[in-house]
C-alpha cells in the first residue's frame, strides 16, 4: 500500500483546499464525516453495510438501547419491558415519541415493523422474531417462537421501529429517498451513493441517546483514503476512520488532528463455495480449502495493513463474542509448502485460476491474492460495489470472496458464525451437523451453549469452510476540537459528540 501522506505536495493540498473549502467544523456546528462505502439503499432492512448501520442509529431508534456505561440493554423507545415467558416479551412504549413527520409512535408501528421483517426476505436477519401483538396503543408483545438467549442484543441492534403507515405507502425505495424515523437526526438530503445530510430533530425525546449537540451531520462517500486524508487536513471534512497503520503517525503529526484506535467486533475472512452453489470449482475439495488456509500469511498481512489492536483469528467469530470457543478450532499455520502439497494431492499440482470477489479493503485483498499466487492460485479480483456482491452472494454465485463482518454489533456468536453457517442464503457449506449444533446453542443454559458452539467451531474449522483472517482495529482521525469517544461496536455515536474549544 502506498499512502505517502508525508509527500503530499503543496500543489495537491492547495488544489484540495480550492476544490473543497473548509466548510466543516465548529464554526457552523456541523460535522462532516466520510467513508469508502455507502449502501445504495439506506433503508436499514435493505443492506448489511456498516455505514448504513451508523446511519440507522442516527435516523431511527429501537425499543432497547445499550447503556455504554453499564453494558446493559435498557428501554429506549420503550419505557419498560418484561419477559412474559421464555419466548414472549412485553414492552410499554414511552409516551409522546414523535416520528420526523410529526406522527406519534404507537404499538401499531411496532407491530407493522415486525410484520414486515418477519414476512419479507431482507438482507438484515430477523430470524429471532416470529411475530408481534398489540395489547393497547402503548403496549406490545413480541414472540420469538423459540428461546434466543441474545434476544435483547438483537432487538437493540436489528429492529429499528418504522412508521407503519408511511412504510406501507412508500416501501424500501421511498424510505431510502426520504427516511422517516424517531431518531436524533432527520434526513434533509440523500443523494444515493454519494451523500446524506441530516439535521438534529428538534422534537427528539432523548432517552439513552440524549439530545444531540451538533446541529448538522453530513456523510460523504469518498472511495480513496488519500482523498479523505487530504480533505481532513484541509478542513473539508472533520472525521474519518479505517486509517491505515502507515498513515497514523503522519496524521498524528498534524496539530489540528487527533487519532484514536481500538479493536472491534469486526472480523475479516474468505468465504468459499464448499458445496458448488456457484458451479463446479476446486473449493468443493477439502484439501483445496485446507491449502488456501495454509497459503495465506495472515500475520504479515495483519501487521502491515491492520496494525496494533488487531489480531489473527482461527475461529468463525470474534473472540470477544460469547460462545466463540477458541480452543476447539483447528489452526492452519502459514505453510506454503504444505499448501502446494495439498493442492497436488487434490489434483492441482500447477494450481488453478479462480475469480475472487471483493467490495472493500482492496489493499487487504491484494495482499491475500499475493499469498495465493505464491502457491500457484491465480486469484482474479472482481472488485464490485457492496450491493453487487451481496446480491451475487445471496444468489449463490461466488466461488470465493473477501468478507468483512461486524455482527451488527451483537456480542454473541449467533451473530457471526450463526449468520454465515445456519443454512441461509449466505451459507456456502450447508453442513447439517453445523446447522444442528447452532440450533443446540439456542438455549438459556450457558454451559450447553458453550459446548454446542465449541463443537460447531471444531467442525467448521476441520472442514476449512472458510479462511478466518483477523479482527479489525479501527483507527479514527478527526478534528482535534471534536469531542468523540470510540466504542467497540464500530458504531460511532455522533449524537454524543460535541465541539469544544
From TrEMBL:
Location of the Solute-binding protein family domain: 72-423
Signal peptide extent: 1-24
Keywords attached to this entry: Signal, Transport
Keyword Signal: yes
Gene3D superfamilies: Dipeptide-binding Protein, Domain 1, Dipeptide-binding Protein, Domain 3, Periplasmic binding protein-like II
Similarity comment: Belongs to the bacterial solute-binding protein 5 family.
Name of the molecule in the record: ABC transporter substrate-binding protein
